[in-house]
Design goal:
With about 325 residues, this protein is an alpha/beta fold. Helices cover about 35% and strands about 30% of the residues.
């Protein structure tokens, strides 16, 4: 890494965004709001889009080469098929990168990107944004003290654009695959999976030793659901990603009551509501990235984390797409 790219002063970090579609524009918005950060420009294959976003957030629309000359760090939010070429170009220019998930189209590309960043001494963070959801961060602090039996994640809802052909395994399920692996600090030993409705609904079951994790993703469910349930011997933990809430159910017990001569049955439990410091996950993610750039520390979501998630979802997708609906296969991945 060249000396001018090393963050040894307190000057603002100079950042840019490559690709300012819906997600990239949000990155530009948050960068423009962060302290000690200077949004020096945005780039996009559509110059009109780049100019509109630049005007909205008080910066410049630049060609990519000029943007990289001005930046210490960039977000890459281009389509997945362009991740490898775009990220490599940024890293070769000595610029730190946060790239949206999945890290690349192939595991091999992801590994090459990781090697390139490591050799250059640059930060390569991957945008698995749910890691920065305050509710998930709260659970990650609890889980080490639990004897976990199972995890169940649901990411359901209708598509925003019903003409979009997005793959639910790569677009949606990858979030929860990464969350489960990070909470358990492990990779799955075996995977079974099935799908239906032309791959718009998929579910997988993964084993992590004595722990079982089930993850479901859907673009056909007429209600938006983003939930995680952790079953442990001590308690049941319910996480709502949308509400950014955590409920812990403990000491569940049955009880019979006598009311007006009639016996009634009820089941009670103690419910705890741990404090969750709510906030925008994207803001937490970009603050974390900027801190890693400034200090040279390892990012919260490393390239290796993202490569592991990509390997897992590729196995899941092969099982989902390789069989007729309602039939599943299992693969051992020891």
């Amino acid at each position: 890494m060249s000396p001018e790219r090393t963050m040894t002063t307190s000057r603002p970090i100079r950042v840019g965004v490559v690709g300012v579609g819906a997600m990239g524009e949000n990155h530009a918005r948050v960068y423009s709001e962060l302290r000690d950060v200077d949004l020096v420009g945005v780039a996009d294959h559509d110059p009109d889009v780049a100019r509109r976003v630049a005007t909205e957030y008080g910066t410049e629309a630049l060609e990519m080469e000029r943007l990289l000359e001005r930046c210490d760090a960039v977000t890459v939010a281009v389509p997945t098929h362009a991740h490898y070429e775009t990220v490599s170009r940024c890293l070769e220019s000595g610029v730190h990168v946060l790239v949206e998930k999945p890290i690349a189209e192939t595991v091999e590309q992801g590994r090459k990107m990781a090697t390139l960043a490591r050799t250059a001494g640059l930060v390569l963070q991957v945008g698995h944004i749910e890691r920065f959801n305050p509710a998930v961060q709260t659970v990650s602090e609890l889980i080490d003290d639990l004897d976990v039996i199972s995890l169940e994640a649901e990411r359901l809802g209708p598509p925003i654009d019903r003409t979009a052909p997005g793959n639910v395994v790569f677009d949606l399920m990858v979030h929860d695959v990464d969350i489960v692996a990070s909470l358990l600090d492990d990779d799955p030993e075996s995977i079974s999976a099935m799908g239906t409705d032309d791959g718009r609904y998929a579910t997988t079951t993964m084993s992590f030793g004595d722990v079982v994790a089930t993850v479901t993703a859907s673009r056909v469910t007429q209600k938006k659901v983003r939930k995680l349930t952790v079953t442990a011997r001590e308690c049941l933990v319910e996480v709502d990603y949308l509400e950014q809430s955590v409920l812990i159910h403990r000491d569940s017990y049955p009880e019979y009551l006598v009311d007006d001569g009639q016996r009634r049955y009820r089941h009670e439990s103690v419910v705890e509501r741990p404090r969750v410091d709510n906030g925008e996950p994207l803001r937490h993610e970009l603050e974390s990235f900027v801190e890693a750039v400034r200090t040279g520390s390892e990012p919260t979501v490393t390239a290796e984390d993202a490569i592991d998630a990509l390997e897992t979802v590729k196995r899941i997708d092969a099982l989902v797409s390789g069989e007729k609906p309602r039939r599943g296969r299992e693969v051992e991945i020891r």
